[in-house]
Amino acid sequence: MGLYVAEVPWAYPGSRFTKDFDLTVAWFASYLPRSTTSYFMRVDWETIGRCVNRALHDLEPEHSRRLDSLVNIGIDETSYKKGSQVHYSNR
């Protein structure tokens, strides 16, 4: 007799967490730094990345089309370090 793994409707395939947990971690990670997300959710940084990857399709099903209507990107070449501005345009 061996180990049997079954898919369940409340978790993504291969995940040790529920879908709700993965989605919550992904939501936190989209608004907060990984260190803060890691602290509040009590998981390490690598786990946050895996949760985001699993939840990505539910959060943004067609992420390959995200930039389809993008026409111009403006970058301030003289100050591209932290705190500089990047301008996007859909005109």
Question: Secondary-structure blueprint of this entry?
Answer:
Elements: H1 19-31, H2 34-41, H3 45-59, E1 72-75, E2 86-89
Antiparallel strand pairs: 1-2
What would you note in describing this structure?
This protein has 91 residues and is mainly alpha-helical. It is built from 3 helices and 2 strands; from the N terminus they run αααββ. The chain has helices spanning 19-31, 34-41, 45-59; strands at residues 72-75, 86-89. Strands 1-2 form a two-stranded antiparallel ribbon. α1 crosses α3 (45-59). The radius of gyration is 18 Å and the shape is extended. The model has no long low-confidence stretch (mean pLDDT 81).
Brief summary:
The N and C termini lie far apart (63 Å).
Record keyword descriptors for this entry.
single chain; 91 residues; mainly alpha; two-stranded antiparallel sheet
Sketch the topology as an H/E string, one letter per element: HHHEE
Overall pLDDT: 81
Spatial separation of the terminal alpha carbons: 63 Å
**By helix and strand content, what is the structural category?**
mainly alpha
Number of helices: 3
Strands, total number? 2
Low-confidence stretches: none
* Approximate shape: extended
| Rg measurement, Å | 18 Å
Report strand order across the widest sheet. 1-2
Overall helicity: 25-40%
- Work out the strand percent: 5-15%
Biggest sheet overview: 2 strands, antiparallel
